[in-house]
Structure formats: C-alpha cells, structure tokens
Write a structure and sequence with these properties.
- By secondary structure, the protein is mostly helical.
- It contains three helices and two strands.
C-alpha cells in the first residue's frame, strides 16, 4: 500500500501563485485560506465566497500552518 502525504491537498507549483502552497492546484493560497478563516464569522460564510473549499482543505491548511510553526520540514511531492 502506498504511503499518502498528510497534506495531499496542498500543492506547490513554481508556475502557480509564485510557488506558494495552494489548495489542490487551485489559485487559492494557504495564506488566503488562513486569512479568510480569521476574517469570516463562520465556515458557512467562508464557503459562500469560496465554494470550492472543502472541509478537508481547511483542515489540511490549518495542519500545514501548525507544522510550519513547529519548525518541521514538510515535503510536498
């Protein structure tokens, strides 16, 4: 069985958004998702403006940010 990344929805592509981590190859950076989470009163309001976001996208964005703060190196395939 192949090992899956805990961040399989996080993509980093040099040609997309200057290589910033994004959600599923979309032009939606993790930074924008985190900023939006801090701005909107509820996830329902967030989803109204970002309908492409799924619960797992949000969970992985938060987990990835926490991993970065823990000074861990996170490899994205």
């Amino acid at each position: 069985m192949a090992e899956t990344s805990p961040f399989d929805r996080i993509t980093v592509e040099v040609g997309t958004m200057n290589g910033q981590p994004c959600i599923r190859g979309l032009r939606l950076t993790l930074r924008r998702v985190l900023e939006a989470l801090s701005t909107y009163d509820s996830r329902e309001e967030l989803r109204a403006d970002y309908p492409e976001l799924e619960d797992e996208d949000i969970r992985q964005a938060l987990a990835y940010a926490a991993a970065m703060l823990a000074d861990e190196t996170v490899e994205i395939p």
